[in-house]
Amino acid sequence: MIESIIESLVNLLGEDWRAGLEYITNGKHMMWYASIRFTLIAAIAGAAFAVLFGLLGAALKQSAIAPLRWIGSFYVNIVRGVPDVLFFLFFPLAFEQFVEYIFSRTRCTAEEIASNAGSWPPCDAAQWYLEGNDYLILACVSFGIVYGAFAANVIHGAMQAVPHGQLEAAQAYGFTKKQVFWRFKVRQMWTYALPGLSNVWMLLLKATSLLSLLQIADIVLWADRLGAPNYLARAGMVHPDWRWKYYLVLFVFYILMTMLSERVFDWLQRRANRGMVEVN
Q: Which of 55, 96, 102, 203 has CA 20 to 30 A from 181's CA?
């Protein structure tokens, strides 16, 4: 199929384009294009986790139980203060070490632990071998935890912006506090939260460029590999440092994603505003 597309483009553009078209459709470049799925999965799944953690954090901050309020405030304030890169490096490694610690307690004998006190894990049975999909799942959860704290702050403010008179009217009609919270407060807060959540999404989308830090061969890692000076022992230099060209492609890719995101959030905002009465 690729060959037929190349032939069609060569017939349209001319024979001078053949070498370039064959180069950008070779095996390594196809892997680069395929790695876009990691960016999209991490962004969408990370956003889903962020909304989940955001709702949970906002609910905890408004809880009538003091310890739960403290937990919600601790999560929102502390996680927002930790640099994103540091958290992305810390959480997957800490989780991996924690799982291996559990494995070492359940799978390793006392003799193996004593004889391998200076190494980790203390036995082969406790070794947790992570693959690309495992790192991707950890990356999605990491994005969710970090940007969930920002989302929680936005959602908390949006909930406070919901007119209290409407909530009191719902209680007067016999709705329970739980029903008022989920059917009225959460339903109406989206119209106030979406502008702030769109900013959180943009931050999360930009952070997907850090996936290579989590052992994931994403579009940034492939761009660095493909653009680096390429030498062969017999043929000499295939191409000089072209990384700026590949980074320019990524620049355009993220701009297009941003433009698409703005359209999606405009649509979500219109849907959230349906049936809402503006109060002057």
A: 203
Evaluate whether 69 touches 63 at the Cβ level (below 8 Å). Answer: yes
| Ordered per-residue pLDDT tens for the chain, 280 residues | 667 777 676 677 777 667 777 777 788 888 888 899 999 999 999 999 999 999 999 988 888 888 998 999 999 888 888 888 888 888 888 888 888 888 888 888 777 777 777 777 777 777 777 776 888 888 899 999 999 999 999 999 998 888 888 788 888 888 887 888 777 888 888 889 999 999 999 999 999 998 888 778 889 999 988 888 876 655 555 777 888 899 999 999 999 999 999 999 999 988 887 766 554 4
Residue 139: which of 198, 224, 79, 204 has the closest Cα? 204
Domains of the chain by residue range: 26-272
Is pTM, for the whole model, over 0.90?
no
Q: Which long-range contacts (CB under 8 A, 24 or more apart) does 205-209 make?
A: 205/43, 205/254, 205/257, 205/258, 205/261, 206/254, 207/84, 207/88, 207/143, 207/146, 207/147, 208/39, 208/42, 208/43, 208/46, 208/143, 209/250, 209/254
CA max distance for the chain: 84
CA distance 31 to 18: 20
CATH fold of 26-272, please? MetI-like fold (1.10.3720)
CA distance 260 to 264: 6
